Amino acid sequence: MDATLDRIRLLVLDVDGVMTDGRIILDSRGGETKAFDVRDGHGLKLLQRAGFLVGIITGRMSPVVDLRARELGIDLIYQGARDKLAPYREMRDRLGLKDEQVAYAGDDLVDLPLLRTVGWSITVPEAPDEVKAEVDYITRHAGGRGAVREICDLILKTTGKWEQVTSRYFAG
Fold first, then answer.
1. Residue 21 included in any domain
2. Residue 135 falls inside a structural domain
3. If you compute the radius of gyration of the chain from its CA atoms, what whole number of angstroms results?
4. Phi and psi of 32, rounded to 5°?
């Protein structure tokens, strides 16, 4: 896994089930609520600070996702993507990257084509067995409950960039 992670330059995330716990809460006026883990967000900022790129590809359309992406400084975002390979290829090509330089975290059957394409594929413990059987890594933490932070920390520590982006927190 170390050599695989050393090549990673871009982390792409699904939203529902990875960045959130997968629940979609709708109010009587059609408003949508999603819960994001603050530590996941901090992990993504640490990853960006270390020079990694972060993108989002999700099958649903949600203003909440746009808001969260803006908060995190993520401008590589594709919503309403039923076929996630097309926006992935557009993102990859725009950045001039190869598949082996990309990690993707997805949690359901719709994610399988993309999970099979990237250099490092990740899912969460709640994913169907068919997805878990095909990925390189299954997080210990649940989607929306620290899975993204776990992924970020693992990338940073494995590539030797953890100390670079966290030293200010440990300085006496």
1. yes
2. yes
3. 15
4. -115, 140
Residue 136 host element (H or E): none
Within a domain: 170: no
Q: Helix, strand, or coil here: 76? A: strand
Distance CA 131, CA 108 (A): 6
| C-beta separation of 118 from 104 below 8 A | yes
172 domain-assigned? no
Domain count, the chain: 1
pLDDT in tens, 75-90: 999 999 989 999 999 9
Q: Which sign, positive or negative, has the C-alpha torsion 137, 127, 80, 148?
A: negative
Structure token digits, residue 162 = 């953890």
CATH number at residue 48: 3.40.50.1000
CA distance 76 to 136: 23
pTM: predicted TM-score of the whole model, two decimal places: 0.95
- Report the SS3 class of residue 170: helix
Following DSSP, what letter does each residue of 106-161 receive, concatenated?
--SGGGHHHHTTSSEEEE-TTS-HHHHTT-SEE-SSPTTTTHHHHHHHHHHHHTT-
Biggest CA–CA distance in the chain, Å, is 51
pLDDT digits (tens, 9 = 90+) for 19-55: 999 998 888 998 889 999 999 999 999 999 999 999 9
Which domain, by its residues, includes 70?
Answer: 2-162
